[in-house]
Structures are given as structure tokens and as C-alpha cells.
Design a protein that fits this description.
heterodimer; A: 779 residues; alpha+beta; Aldehyde Oxidoreductase, domain 3; Aldehyde Oxidoreductase, domain 4; seven-stranded mixed β-sheet; five-stranded mixed β-sheet; 29% helix; B: 179 residues; DNA polymerase, domain 1; globular
Chain lengths: 779, 179
């Protein structure tokens, strides 16, 4: 009988000692012999015709190795940046994005040329000397104006600025609205955000002339996808290209796609025959790494006067930038999960992707689900306010309570207990006392607000039955579990960790599944040379897909070990007992073999008839369903009406991500996720000038990434509702905090401002915005 | 063009020829080969490049290498040179004060400098001491906890958190592996 020891244990992460002592190895730490440094010349204009590019002076500058433009790259790079179906297979147009602009630049920061030099300073110097003659064209910036037939287009030759226009019908929406006693409408804006991994993008490419082999070290969440696409563009067989994602300093979704610079760095290495390094500067990162969100939602809610929710109409305008992001249409999922954790007669989604002369938007932590949670959690609060119902009661009245639950679009929520997380969170804040205190403070002219967010999220991307039609890809996950002759274990995963702690948590799973010491398990990931095709890390998928894949490989190893033990003991397989890594015949535990002993035997002679040597297993796990974590977050704020400043007094998060492998890691994920949601709710916003299309928030001086001064301590608890989707009973936690938190904060701010008659506050709820709302309400 | 600099880095005297415009962070990373000091922005907001210059925390992206001539620099690599983690490093490990680890060397050095100056910082002192460093992974709560813990380990007693009802299970101290 196996006894769980490591799964659930609150152990420190094994990846930390090297990282806290400065011995991590990030891309910029890699130096190769004879390496040239690449600087990228970028368009300063949102939209301009490129009349000419003069590289004469740059080429002659000190230390310059080469200057390349589109003409050079056309010779070594084919195709275009890939665009996936991602919930919208029938797009109206998919313009090709070559890796560098040729005759027209369509967003500020678009690569126009590259300079290679002997060091990064000289490359940056020479980049200033590339003379590009731009003829500025009108910048298309406003989503609604961009949709008009008479709007200028984002790029010459396009018919209009509509990328897609898709309806998602989830039931008879007109019938649902026909029953309505109350209808609430609101416009909810999801401002553009910078994902901001602390490590910016960067890569080192080494093409070996005459060998036609290419190695790329790159800061990515998806090394196999990078190899797939870049090898194709370079005309190099996938087998002759190796992509390594070493230590990666965060991603948050911004590193799940191939970027122009990765192609250009590889191509430049081929053109020069030298290794080439490129490191993004932060000012480049803000203008040229994909952004998140950037959407406008118009919602319409039908309900009864008793709080029963009936119908929800969602219209999503998505600013996708000048080109499709690789996964930009994924964010249309906001409609599909826009009903949240409530029963609805119908939910109807309408998503319109609109091109603008901005950097592409692509997934950023949560990708469509924070937007969904924000709109539905705001929606129920708006209805509650209108009918004079407590926000807790309207939630309780409409919670989904039977599982599995097919939502209005046929997505099946696997398990849940929404009352339980709500109850626990209310208990932690002492909700009745909090409401009483709110009353007392209001009488004193102080404005306390209490905000709830009862969320459910779709994660564990994803079952091929769902992702293949939607995304054109099977987002399964691979694993190899290899027991060496002396009993230590190498585990290979196709996921990629960049802060999530897989080295620790996956080893915890393996230690229990094989009954071997945790210390004997070693995880490998991120190098296409020693991992089977892997699908990478995003969408809170690594544990629920990758971890389960590993558990299944372990199970295969145990089955083979059991057969070997039966052979050694001359017993029937069904009589072999496996107890914490010790194999013995039933009733005779004293005479047992450890897995290490059996492993040694499997590499030697005398195996059962027909059995091959070795003790390892490979699995590609295709999950039967998504997994659906849920929870309740409560935010308590005080708003100073004189300044509009919001102070977070308490932040309580009760999450349920199914079974937990390591509570320490889960809590860390919640902390960081919540912080990013608070950042969106109160601080961050990417701003462009509406006319010129110039980025106005191009440095950390202008874009308010929260510091330690802005973040409260968090109070956390959990409930455990195992997922029936996989044998580990796990869900996911990487995005939950971000998905849950922005509506908790904004609902709290709106609640605080209720005495002024204010029902909705847009993000970021900055002091000036709140102050203006109060002044407007008072006038 | 190049100038000679003599810098003591983590106790070892070096002499190098550098361009006058070379930043200290590039000197440390590319000349001295100490890549533990990271670059996270280009406007001195993020603090990933924090090192100690004659014992004071500086952002090494805002110091030229030539300004370090004749002076002493301590980087994150020097903290555990004896093979034992510095209490600040141990506290960051214990309290899960890092995830991707990219900002961590800067936080560790800024914390070391803070505790050197103020062995018993209040939460407000911790905020003031670390508000020049950005972290995108942790939400800072565990970093705050790590600083308190490091202060306690080093003999100072970080003031108990004020007004924060951190009574949830999350507040339980991290245990080491049980097996």
C-alpha cells in the first residue's frame, strides 16, 4: 500500500539555491566564441511608408560586422509569423507578417533592419546610423472608428480593418431577454497591459556553416514550437535544429510565440557564419513584445427582480494590433466562459477582432479568462445594485451546483463547490461585521468598499477533442521517465518552467509514484535535444496535462518493474505487492526488491521471455476534458474621496485547484497572480497617442508596475475539490489569482463609491479617474 | 580610448581596461564574468542590477565602471562564497521569496544593505528599503516575509507586521522536506 509522502508536502524549491546565489543561467549569461551582437532598427512611426533605407554609414561604423534589411532576409527566411485558429477558425483576413518590414511599417517598434557588431555598444551606435526615409501615413488607433467603412486601413492593400467577426450562440438569447424584469447594460474596458517578464526577451543563435545545423538559446515558454516554426522558415530539417530555453525570467504569456527577432537572429547567424546574440532592452520590450488585453466589452444582462439571472449578451471588440498575434483569437474565449459560475438560460457572444497600428496583443496571464471573470462579476454586482440585493445573495441564488456541468456553449465544468469557497472567504473577513463597519464609517464620511469575485476558470489546455477544432492543434503533453541502472530517475517533460517550480513539484509526484527518494529524481525540460516534442507552459496546463503525463509514465515503469519482480520471485504478477517502491510477494514483505534493484536487473540478462532491456516509459497524455479551478476572492478597500486614492485594507483569497502537490508553490502562484490583477485594477495602462500612434508609456517611469509599497499582504486559504478529469485530481493555479482579482478590486471600489451613486469604475481605477467620477457625480 | 580601472570585486583585486562609457553592470557581467547581476530595465527603475559599492547598495546600471576605480564591489556571487548561504539568501529560500529568480540577486543585495544599516526594520522600513526593486512573480508578500525572517536570523528582530491580519494558513512557516 503506497503511502503518500511527498505529494502535498510543503517543501522548499530545489531550483532556488542557484538562483539566489547568482548561478542561474539566463540567455544573456551565454557567451560563445566569436559571437556578434545584434541591434534592431525599429520604426519610430505607427504607420509609415518606407521610401528607402540607407545603410552606408552604419556599415562603415566602428566594429560593425553587417547590416541586414528585408532584402537580405528574404534570401534565408521563408513564410511569415504563424497565426493559429484559436477559437476563430474563420477569420476574415490573415495578412502575412514577414519578420522585418520591407516597404511599410505598421506599428511603432516594428523591426526594419538589424545591425551586427563586435559588442552591444557598437551595435547600438551603428543602429542609430541606419538612415530610413519614412513617409508617415495615418495611424488607425480607435477601435470603433477603425470599424467604419470609411476608415483608413492599417496597412496598404487591406480591404478594411476587420480581422474577424464571429458570433458564439449559447442558447436562445432573445427568449431569455423576453423574460427579463430587469435589464442592465454596461461598457467595460480592458485596457492594454504590458506583460513584463523581469527578464526581457533575448536569444543566441549559432548556425554552423557547411554543417547546416542551428542551435538557438532563447527566452521562451515553448521551445518546441519555436523549433517547429523557425526550422520551417529557415529550411532546416527540424532534426538539425536545437532550441534551448535555459533559465527563463518569467513569461506570463508573452513568450509563448515565435517572435520576429528570433527568426532574424537565426538568419543573421546563417548570413554571417558567426554566432549572434540579441538582447532586448526594456524600452524595446515595452514597444515590441506583445501586449495583453486591449478589449472593449459591451454587456447586457437580463434578470428577474428576485435576482435570478436569465441572459447575458457579450460584445467583445478586440484590438489585435497591426498583425494577428499568434494566439490573439484565443481571447475570444471570454465569451465562452463569460457566464462564470452561474446558471444562465442563454449567453450570447459576439467577438470582433479589429486591426490598429499598434503592437499585436497576444495572451497575457489568463488570456480571455480575466476578461470573462471581470465582465460577469461586474455584471452580477450591477444587477444586485439595481434590485437592491446583497452581492453575496445574488451569487448564491445563481451558482451552478451540479457537476459535471455543461455550460451554455457545451464546455463541461468538471467539479466544483462554489458555496464552500464563498462561505470560507466570508468567514475569514467576517462579512456581517464588515458590512456593519462599512455603515458606521459611511456615517463618518469614510468610504469602505467590499468586493467579491467568485470565479471559475478553464485551464489545463487542452483536450485535443476541444483544441483541435478550435486551435488546429492537439495540446497534449509528453513525458519520459527513465530509471537508471543504479536507481536514480531522469524525468523529461515537454512543459517549461520559468518560475513555476516544476523541478520540485514534478519530482514530488515521481517520488510517490515510483516510491523512490525525492532526491533521486531529476527533471529535465526546455531543451529540444533531450525532450520529446513538448507543448510548453501556458494556460495553467503544466500540472494537469504535463504532471499527469509524468504520473502515467511512472505507472508504466511500475508495471514493468512488477513483471520483472514476478519473474525474479517466480510468482504470478498479480501476487506482487508494490509498497512504497518495494516489490514483494503477497504475505512475504521481508523478501523484497527495491525499484533500484529491479532497475539494475532490467539492464542485465535473464529477463522474462520477450522483454526488452531498460526501465523507461514515454507518454503523450491527451486529457479527456479541461480542468476548472474556482474560488472566492474578497477585497476590502477604503477610498479617499478627497484624492481618489484607493487603499487595499485586506485581500482574502480562497482558491480550489483540486489536489495540491506543494502548498508553498501554490500560495506563491496565487500571490503573484493576485498582484498582477491588482496591478491591472489600480495601476497599469498602456497608452498611445490617439493621433500619432506614439507609445506614451514607453518606460517604467510612465508605466506603473507596482512595487512593494503598493502590494498588501494576502490572506489565503484553500478548499480541495479534486478534479475527476485526471487521476491526480489536480487542476491548475498559475493564472487563478489574475483571473479572480481585478473584479474583486473593482467591485470593492464601486461598492465604496455607492453613496455617490457610482455603479461602475473603469480600470485602472487611478486616483484621478476616481476623483473625476466623484466630482461628476456631485455636480 | 580605454581606461584602466582597479576594482576589488568580491574581495579579489582586478585591473582591466574599459571604455569610459561602459556601465558597471556590463563590467561585472562581461569583463569580470559575474552574470548573477541582472539587467531588467534601462531607466534604473527595476533594481535587478543592485550591487554593493563600498558597502552601499547601488544600481550598477547607473554607475560607470570607471567610477568604481579604486573601490570595492560586492555582488550576489560573493555573498555565499564560503559555501554557506547568507541569511538573506536562506530567508528568501525558506519563505519562497522568489519564483523565476531574475530579480532575486538585486533583492538579495538590497536586503543585505538594508539589514546592514537597520538590523530591525519595521514593515515601513522594508518598504522604503526595497521600493526601488521590481518583482513580477511574487507579489512581494513573501519577499517582505523573507526580509523579516532574515532580520530575525541575523539577530535583529524585524518588527512584527502591524495591522495585517495574516492569520491564514499561508502564514505558516515553510518547513523543509519531511523525508
Amino acid at each position: 500500500m503506497a503511502v503518500t509522502q511527498m505529494v502535498g508536502a510543503r517543501i522548499q524549491r530545489r531550483e532556488d539555491p542557484k538562483l539566489i546565489t547568482g548561478h542561474g543561467r539566463y540567455v544573456d549569461d551565454i557567451t560563445l566564441h566569436n559571437m556578434a551582437h545584434m541591434a534592431v532598427v525599429r520604426s519610430p512611426h505607427a504607420h509609415a511608408r518606407i521610401a528607402s533605407i540607407d545603410i552606408t554609414e552604419a556599415t562603415r561604423a566602428r566594429g560593425v560586422v553587417a547590416v541586414y534589411t528585408a532584402r537580405d532576409f528574404r534570401g534565408v527566411l521563408a513564410g511569415a509569423i504563424p497565426v493559429t485558429n484559436s477559437f476563430v477558425p474563420d477569420k476574415k483576413q490573415v495578412p502575412d507578417q514577414f519578420y522585418v518590414a520591407e516597404t511599410e511599417a505598421v506599428y511603432q517598434g516594428e523591426p526594419v533592419a538589424v545591425v551586427l557588431a563586435e559588442d552591444r555598444y557598437l551595435a547600438a551606435d551603428a543602429a542609430q546610423l541606419v538612415m530610413v526615409d519614412y513617409e508617415p501615413l495615418p495611424a488607425v488607433m480607435d477601435l470603433e472608428k477603425a470599424m467604419r467603412p470609411d476608415s483608413p486601413v492599417v496597412a496598404t492593400g487591406r480591404p478594411d480593418n476587420i480581422a474577424w467577426d464571429t458570433e458564439f450562440p449559447g442558447g436562445d438569447i432573445d427568449a431569455a431577454f423576453a423574460e427579463a424584469e430587469v435589464v442592465v447594460k454596461e461598457r467595460i474596458t480592458q485596457q492594454r497591459l504590458f506583460p513584463i517578464a523581469m527578464e526581457m526577451r533575448g536569444c543566441v543563435a549559432e548556425y554552423v556553416p557547411f554543417d547546416n545545423r542551428l542551435t538557438l538559446w532563447t527566452s521562451t515558454q515553448v521551445p518546441h514550437f519555436i523549433r517547429l516554426f523557425i526550422s520551417g522558415a529557415m529550411g532546416i530539417p527540424e532534426a538539425q535544429m536545437r532550441v534551448v530555453a535555459p533559465d527563463v525570467g518569467g513569461g506570463f504569456g508573452s513568450k509563448i510565440r515565435p517572435y520576429p527577432e528570433e527568426y532574424l537572429c537565426c538568419a543573421a547567424s546563417k548570413l554571417t557564419g558567426r554566432p549572434v546574440k540579441w538582447n532586448e532592452e526594456r524600452s524595446e520590450n515595452l514597444v515590441a513584445t506583445t501586449h495583453g488585453r486591449g478589449q472593449i466589452f459591451d454587456i447586457e444582462v437580463a434578470a428577474r427582480n428576485d435576482g435570478t439571472l436569465l441572459g447575458l449578451r457579450i460584445t467583445q471588440l478586440l484590438d489585435i494590433g497591426a498583425y494577428h498575434g499568434v494566439f490573439s483569437a484565443f481571447q475570444a474565449v471570454a465569451s465562452l466562459v463569460g457566464g462564470g459560475c452561474y446558471e444562465w438560460k442563454a449567453v450570447h457572444g459576439h467577438s470582433i477582432g479589429v486591426f490598429t497600428n499598434r503592437t499585436s496583443t497576444d495572451p497575457y496571464r489568463g488570456a480571455g479568462r480575466p476578461e470573462a471573470t471581470h465582465l460577469v462579476e461586474r455584471a452580477v454586482d450591477l444587477v444586485a445594485r439595481r434590485i437592491g440585493m446583497d452581492p453575496v445573495e445574488i451569487r448564491r441564488k445563481n451558482f451552478v451546483r451540479t457537476f459535471p456541468h455543461p455550460n451554455n456553449f457545451g464546455l463541461v465544468y468538471d467539479s466544483g463547490d462554489y458555496d464552500k469557497t464563498l462561505d470560507r472567504a466570508l468567514e475569514m473577513v467576517d462579512y456581517p461585521a464588515l458590512r456593519r463597519r462599512q455603515e458606521e464609517l459611511r456615517a463618518q464620511g469614510r468610504y469602505l468598499g467590499i468586493g467579491l469575485s467568485t470565479y471559475v476558470e478553464i485551464c489545463g489546455l487542452g483536450p485535443s477533442a476541444a483544441t483541435a477544432p478550435a486551435a488546429g492543434i492537439a495540446l497534449v503533453e509528453s513525458s519520459v521517465v527513465r530509471v537508471h541502472p543504479t536507481g536514480s530517475v531522469t524525468v523529461v517533460t515537454g512543459t517549461h518552467a520559468h518560475g513555476q517550480g516544476h523541478d520540485t513539484t514534478f519530482a514530488q509526484i515521481v517520488a510517490d509514484a515510483l516510491g523512490v527518494p525525492y532526491e533521486s529524481v531529476e527533471l529535465r525540460h526546455g531543451d529540444t535535444a533531450d525532450t520529446p516534442f513538448g507543448y510548453g507552459t501556458y494556460g495553467s496546463r503544466s500540472l494537469a496535462v504535463g504532471g499527469v503525463s509524468i504520473a502515467r509514465s511512472c505507472q508504466k515503469v511500475v508495471e514493468k518493474a512488477r513483471r520483472v519482480a514476478a519473474h525474479i520471485f517466480e510468482a504470478a504478477e498479480e501476487d506482487i505487492v508494490v509498497d512504497q517502491g518495494r516489490y514483494h510477494v503477497r504475505g512475504n514483505p521481508a523478501d523484497a526488491r527495491t525499484l533500484a534493484e529491479l532497475a539494475f536487473a532490467t539492464y542485465g540478462p535473464g529477463l522474462p521471455e520477450g522483454m526488452e532491456q531498460g526501465l523507461e516509459a514515454v507518454t503523450y497524455f491527451d486529457p479527456p476534458n479541461f480542468v476548472w479551478p474556482f474560488g472566492c476572492h474578497v477585497c476590502v478597500v477604503e477610498v479617499d474621496p478627497a484624492t481618489g486614492a484607493v487603499h487595499i485594507e485586506r485581500y482574502v483569497a480562497v482558491d480550489d485547484c483540486g489536489n495540491v502537490i506543494n502548498p508553498l508553490v501554490v500560495e506563491g502562484q496565487v500571490h503573484g497572480g493576485v498582484a498582477q490583477g491588482i496591478a491591472q485594477a489600480l495601476f497599469e495602462e498602456v497608452r498611445y497617442d490617439d493621433e500619432s500612434g506614439q507609445l506614451l508609456t514607453g518606460t517604467f517611469l510612465d508605466y506603473l508596475v507596482p512595487t512593494i509599497a503598493e502590494m498588501p499582504d494576502f490572506e489565503l486559504d484553500r478548499t480541495v475539490t479534486p478534479s475527476p478529469t485526471n487521476e491526480l485530481g489536480v487542476k491548475g493555479i498559475g493564472e487563478a489569482g489574475t483571473i479572480a482579482s481585478s473584479p474583486a478590486v473593482i467591485n470593492a471600489v464601486a461598492d465604496a463609491l455607492a453613496p455617490f451613486g457610482i455603479t461602475h469604475v473603469e480600470m485602472p481605477a487611478s486616483p484621478d479617474r476616481i476623483w473625476s467620477l466623484i466630482k461628476e457625480a456631485q455636480s | 580610448m580605454k581606461q584602466s580601472v582597479a576594482v576589488t570585486v568580491n574581495g579579489t583585486q582586478r585591473e582591466d581596461l574599459v571604455e569610459p562609457r561602459m556601465l558597471l553592470v556590463h563590467y561585472l557581467r562581461e569583463v569580470a564574468g559575474l552574470t548573477g547581476t541582472h539587467i531588467g530595465c534601462d531607466t534604473s527603475q527595476c533594481g535587478a542590477c543592485t550591487v554593493l559599492l563600498d558597502g552601499r547598495a547601488v544600481k550598477s546600471c547607473s554607475v560607470f565602471a570607471v567610477q568604481a576605480d579604486g573601490r570595492s564591489v560586492a555582488t550576489v556571487e560573493g555573498l555565499a562564497a564560503t559555501g554557506t548561504l547568507h541569511p538573506v539568501q536562506q530567508a528568501f529560500w525558506n519563505e519562497h521569496g522568489l519564483q523565476c529568480g531574475f530579480c532575486t540577486p538585486g533583492f538579495v543585495m538590497a536586503t543585505a544593505a538594508l539589514l546592514e544599516q537597520n538590523p530591525s526594520p519595521s514593515d515601513e522600513d522594508i518598504t522604503k528599503g526595497l521600493e526601488g526593486n521590481l518583482c513580477r512573480c511574487t507579489g512581494y508578500a513573501n519577499i517582505r516575509r523573507a526580509v523579516r525572517s532574515a532580520a530575525a536570523m541575523m539577530g535583529g528582530q524585524a518588527a512584527a507586521p502591524t495591522g495585517s491580519p495574516a492569520a491564514a494558513p499561508a502564514a505558516a512557516p515553510a518547513a523543509t522536506a519531511g523525508s
